[in-house]
Amino acid sequence: MRGVPIDLHAHTSCSDGTDSPAELITAAAAAGLDVVAITDHDTTAGWAEAAAAVPAGMRLIRGAELSCESPNGRGGTCTVHLLAYLFDAESPALKAEQSRLRAERRTRLRRMAERMAADGFAVDPDDVMDRLPADSPGGRPHLAQALIRAGVVATVDEAFAKYLGTGSRYHAPRTDTPVETAIDMIAEAGGVTVLAHPFASRRGPIVTASVIADLAGLGLSGVEIDHPDHDEPTRARLRALAADLSLVATGSSDYHGTNKTVRLGQETTAPEMLDALVDKASGTPVVVG
Ligand code: AMP
Ligand code: ZN
Ligand code: FE
Ligand code: FE
Q1: Type and span of the H or E element at 113
Q2: How do residues 186-197 score in pLDDT, each as one tens digit?
Q3: Is the pTM value of this prediction over 0.85?
Q4: How far from chain centre, in Å, is Cα 71?
């Protein structure tokens, strides 16, 4: 379907996507989007370039995707991703935590590269790190590219399946932000939070529905339902849960340029859902082209 208007989850080369922020906006226009959100992992470095590129008639939602640790509802913890929108990027506590997370990501990426090099892969940890812009949030897709350059794998998907998953011997953990802290920080910065791909079980362990109810009680505004990693039964379950908990329901592609096979605008959000998020936010305005 062409001309689908609102996609609220997209990455640029400021994190682990392959389009620059300006190229993301061009791609959004080409995909027929009226509204696109920039949601790089743990950084707002692409906001200014994206905002400057917005053409007449398009709107840009400035956001980020935060890596968090959450109770999993089964007595343990797991990683969740929080989409944060329309917050004040200059909020001191948030700025400090994002900076810490970026450093944590780089340390962890180097550790994974070192484990691969020690095992004989033609991956040079210094080269992997030198290719990252200063202070950027390195991620496993960067290591996937190194594995492709080394001829170890042919695609990013193959790299994840064989070497980069949480169960892999090369995988190294990160100390993420406690999810309740992240929700509070974004609320204090005037933003709103949406739980990204909460039931994407193919990626790793996921939370139970009761955890989502708890997060709603802590101020979570929405859940991402229509996501490429959710099948139809999963979407139906999440839709019922969102209705029960009065959460805003979103749909988005999680575009990463050529680092993923999804298309920008492949999944979309209903206009009234975007309006509900915008109404709750006060940290930074929607950019109107
Ligand atoms: P990290 O941020 O280092 O934990 O790496 C996770 C990132 O890799 C997320 O942004 C995912 O979108 C991406 N990712 C996870 N699994 C895959 C996969 N199978 N293929 C491509 N990208 C993936
Ligand atoms: Zn990513
Ligand atoms: Fe994510
Ligand atoms: Fe994402």
Answers
A1: helix 92-118
A2: 999 999 999 999
A3: yes
A4: 19
